[in-house]
Write a structure and sequence with these properties.
The complex is a heterodimer of chains A (about 270) and B (about 180).
Chain A (H helix, E strand, L loop, with lengths): L2 H9 L2 E3 L4 H8 L5 E4 L5 H6 L7 E4 L8 E4 L2 E5 L4 H5 L4 H7 L5 H4 L4 H6 L11 H7 L3 E6 L4 E4 H6 L5 E9 L3 E8 L10 E8 L6 E5 L6 E2 L1 H6 L5 H4 L10 H20 L2
Chain B lengths: L1 E4 L2 E4 L8 H8 L18 E4 L2 E4 L12 E3 L12 H8 L9 H15 L5 H8 L10 H11 L27
Helix pairs in contact in B: 2-5, 3-4, 3-5
Classes of the chains: A alpha+beta (about 270), B alpha+beta (about 180).
The complex binds flavin-adenine dinucleotide and FE2/S2 (inorganic) cluster (FES) (2 copies).
Chain lengths: ~270, ~180
């Protein structure tokens, strides 16, 4: 055994393998001193390079959170459902969003829970699925200090996500019109420069719009939902600079990206 | 923990959060999977996990306890190349060879899944996460498509140099 393995052995004291969602919630407690390990696509390189030294790691792969179920009209997606499973799933809108994440090999590891919990990276924004989930009106069931709660994805993303263990996502399955557009380089590793997604009921009412890739998390765009004017997106978000694009560029293109998504929905 | 690596069952003593890449290279001395970027960005560490290509640098060994792993060592032998390997040879799809293990495994899984000729776009999708700093990709794409059409069955299709003779370059060689 060489250096890397020895280093990891020394570093991580305790790795926990809950065998059910309840056990995961109990072991997680209030989240103090515990690091959640899902697919590992973000966190494993951090641990292997010694940049992150988890005191205790909670590995979720045996916790039974990897199912997509339906309960009446509701669709429930376990936190450990892989992005690959979503990309091959029954919902074409979610499948479309999922198949834009990274590449097929990474999607087989990457989970939906990890996607909405991932902190923004140093060179790119992450968490591309957040936008599609907001547009669907999805809710997050999480546990942590103060116990379990269920809240809209946009509130979860806007709040303090540290200290929450995500168990499941859910949304109401009804007939929708959807639209999506994203601006990206054609390369598996290139995160979106800017993306917009929109959903409404079949008759066009209840429009929900979200953008991703332009700031630390996906954001719901209430101004656009009300006015249906793509230019209003700049009232909802303030694009940031990173290695993928400048804030100025994102600011310039974002209204067009939103317009494209709304046009798709209009003609869906 | 246990893994079945290239058909043989092995017991693993590395700690649970060790990347599969380091278990293979450092504990088991299987060095086909290369340690490139070690953060998911290059694809040279790709192995087949229960038949599906995944990045071994992003996979904690505990998450694949009991799984069957195929590395490039399990795909062919120097004397008996697989169809994809023979096609890479014939089409000059490997230069320094650093990306080749990941490329060959991802291509092998693609062809297996498709079960017949693959289109150019399918190759781009399947290999889109794999960097090659040498070949410019064109020859790799050609090789994968040729292998999927069954054009190169084995290394026997290739010219074999006589003992003591300089190696005969296959037709179409740029050299
Ligand atoms: C080359 C490459 C390209 C990528 N491209 C994209 C892309 O285009 N779009 C995109 O959105 N992402 C991309 N990613 C990022 C990443 O793969 C995805 O966001 C993925 O879904 C993260 O999930 P995971 O299960 O691997 O997370 P992990 O690495 O396991 O965890 C990530 C973070 O979330 C926390 N966490 C995980 N699950 C939970 C949970 N259930 N409850 C609470 N906290 C949790 C962890 O503690 C950690 O902080 C890319 C990554 C790589 C390496
Ligand atoms: S070493 Fe794993 S992707 Fe580069
Ligand atoms: S042959 Fe050198 S990196 Fe591909």
């Amino acid at each position: 055994m060489r250096a890397t393995a020895l280093m990891i052995q020394r570093m991580t004291l305790d790795v926990l393998f809950p065998a059910s969602a309840d056990e995961a919630a109990t072991l997680y407690g209030d989240g103090e001193g515990i690091t959640v390990f899902a697919g590992g696509t973000i966190i494993l390189p951090e641990i292997a390079a010694g940049r992150l030294v988890p005191e205790r790691a909670l590995m979720l792969h045996k916790s039974g959170l990897d199912e997509i179920r339906t309960d009446g009209d509701r669709v429930l997606i376990g936190a450990m459902v892989t992005v690959a499973a979503l990309a091959e799933g029954d919902d074409p809108f979610l499948a479309g969003a999922a198949s834009q994440v990274a590449d097929g090999e990474i999607r087989r590891n990457a989970t939906v829970g990890g996607n909405i919990c991932s902190p923004p990276g140093d060179d790119a924004q992450r968490g591309d699925l957040g936008g599609a989930l907001i547009a669907l009106g999805a809710r997050v069931r999480s546990t942590g200090a103060g116990g379990e709660r269920t809240e809209p994805v946009e509130d979860f993303l806007a709040g303090d996500r540290a200290g929450r263990l995500v168990l499941e996502l859910e949304y109401d399955g009804f007939e929708r019109r959807t639209g999506a557009h994203s601006l990206r380089r054609r390369h598996a590793h290139s995160y979106a420069i800017a993306g917009a997604v929109a959903c409404s009921r079949a008759d066009g009412s209840d429009l929900r719009v979200a953008v991703t890739g332009v700031g630390p998390t996906a954001v719901r765009c209430r101004s656009v939902e009300q006015s249906r004017d793509p230019a209003d997106v700049l009232k909802d978000v303030q694009p940031v600079d990173d290695a993928v694009a400048t804030a100025a560029y994102r600011t310039a293109v974002l209204p067009t990206v939103v317009r494209e998504a709304l046009d798709h929905l209009e003609h869906a | 923990m246990n893994l079945i690596v290239n058909g043989s069952e092995v017991e693993i003593v590395s700690p649970p959060l060790t990347p599969l890449l380091h278990v293979l290279r450092d504990e088991l001395d299987i060095t086909g999977p290369k340690a490139g970027c070690q953060q998911g960005g290059c694809g040279t560490c790709t192995v087949l996990i229960d038949g599906e290509p995944r990045r071994s640098c992003l996979t904690a060994v505990a998450a694949v306890d009991g799984a069957s792993i195929t590395t490039i060592e399990g795909v062919g032998q120097a004397e008996e190349l697989s169809a994809v390997q023979a096609a890479f040879y014939k089409h000059y799809a490997a230069q320094c060879g650093f990306c080749t293990p990941g490329m060959v495994l991802a291509a092998t899984a693609l062809i297996e899944r498709k079960g017949g000729p693959v289109e150019r776009d399918e190759v781009l999708e399947a290999l889109g996460g794999h960097y090659c700093r040498c070949t410019g990709y064109v020859k790799i794409i050609d090789a994968v498509m040729a292998a999927s059409r069954g054009e190169v069955d084995s290394v026997d299709d290739l010219p074999v140099p006589e003992p003591g003779q300089p190696e005969v370059l296959p037709k179409g060689s740029p050299a």
